Amino acid sequence: MSLAGQTALVTGGNKGIGRAICFALAKEGANIVIAARNESESRETLDRLKGMGTKAFAVSVDVRSEDDVRRLISVIIDKCGGLDILVNNAGVAYKNRLEETTLEEYDEIMDTNLRGVFLCTKYAIPYIRRSKNGKIINISSVGGLHGIPDFSIYCGSKFAVNGITESIASELEGEIKVYSVCPGAVDTDMYRSFFKDKPPLEPEHIAQKVLELASPDSKVASGKIIEISAPPVPQL
């Protein structure tokens, strides 16, 4: 497997699952573009990527903003000449019963988790279409497959991401492969802010699956919704 010469955009790529994805793709030679709001966290991730010998840069972006996303894609094309892989990873959650959820919380969840996927995908498609290995990989959640108490709006946003994935996979059949990865409990800052237990998954488990899907050798059919609820069994 080699991603040498290919450019991958990872939203929310400066921490947690997104950062692990950046490192996994970089190890296979991909150029990495981090799109995130926290510039200091992006700089830390960039330093590690560049220490690996990776060509990488970060763009300060709010994926909820159409102007920001348009600028992001323009910068990528100007600097890299193209775009091969989009990983829609940026996401937020609030833990609340539905009746206690504020409209502001609802808007932040839906605008980040769903509008962000819509905008980044919409403006990336014309360029990914030109790639010989065009991939769009959406990071959803098991909450997009099964409702979770106290996370109704988050789950709603992730169910929608899975619906978009299946729809655009059909729209782009033969041009771009589209996937949705649905992690279970992953050891991230967001998970630890809600729960005290040690989850079974590490960000690297999700990154490995994304790497497999991003590979030019991947045989996974476009449109697949892939649940990861436990660490993979080591191959003997």
UniProtKB/TrEMBL annotation:
SMART domains from the UniProt entry: PKS_KR
Residue stretches making up the Ketoreductase domain: 6-189
Keyword set, alphabetical order: Oxidoreductase
InterPro entries, sorted: KR_dom (IPR057326), NAD(P)-bd_dom_sf (IPR036291), Sc_DH/Rdtase_CS (IPR020904), SDR (IPR050259), SDR_fam (IPR002347)
CDD domains per the UniProt record, alphabetical: SDR_c
Pfam families in alphabetical order: adh_short
Highest taxon of source: Archaea
Enzyme Commission numbers on file: 1.1.1.100
UniProt GO BP: monocarboxylic acid metabolic process
A molecular function (GO) term: 3-oxoacyl-[acyl-carrier-protein] reductase (NADPH) activity
Recorded family membership: Belongs to the short-chain dehydrogenases/reductases (SDR) family.
Protein name: 3-oxoacyl-[acyl-carrier protein] reductase
Organism the protein comes from: Methanosarcina horonobensis HB-1 = JCM 15518
